[in-house]
Specification:
Blueprint lengths: L2 H10 L10 H18 L4 H25 L9 H21 L16 H29 L20
Helix pairs in contact: 1-2, 2-3, 4-5
């Protein structure tokens, strides 16, 4: 699939989460979104934000279809986000506990950081970040894999590439 064909496919299937997308379609679309962000970054936050919104749903859809092409559920895309959510939740909860003197901020000592509530907070924060990193790497590996050449549970393979 060519660069232009991938962009056309991305917008034509902007909310289509069913089916499959080949590697070339996904990576050409990813390049397009990076170029759009680079091109609009100099025009202010409003223009850049609108451009981001314009490519958000098509990007999610092509990502899910690409995962389908490797016979994986699109929910794999949410796994890194779940790890980050856990880490943010723990960070905020620890901050609230500190603010309400459940954890005394004035008495917090790095040498005792692994005692009590601090130990749980640091452990859960690290676990959330580790889950985000590990599942992010797994997603990258999935996206780099070859397409399955036969039909899978998500449908037939994408049409073969043609050189134009």
């Amino acid at each position: 699939m060519s660069f232009v064909a991938a962009i056309q496919s991305g917008f034509r299937n902007y909310a289509k989460f069913a089916g499959r997308a080949g590697r070339s379609e996904f990576w050409w679309w990813t390049l397009f979104t990076v170029l759009v962000q680079a091109a609009t970054s100099g025009f202010g936050d409003t223009i850049n934000g609108l451009a981001s919104l314009a490519v958000l749903l098509p990007s999610l859809a092509v990502h899910v279809r690409r995962l389908h092409d490797t016979n994986r559920s699109g929910w794999w895309m949410a796994a890194p986000i779940a790890g980050i959510v856990v880490a943010i939740f723990v960070f905020v909860a620890f901050g609230i506990l500190t603010a309400f003197d459940v954890v005394d901020g004035a008495e917090w000592d790095p040498s005792t950081a692994f005692d009590g509530v601090s130990a749980w907070a640091i452990t859960l924060l690290a676990a959330g970040l580790f889950v985000a990193l590990a599942t992010g790497v797994m997603n990258l590996v999935f996206l780099l894999q070859r397409s399955q050449p036969v039909a899978n549970r998500f449908g037939p393979p994408p049409p073969p590439r043609t050189v134009q």
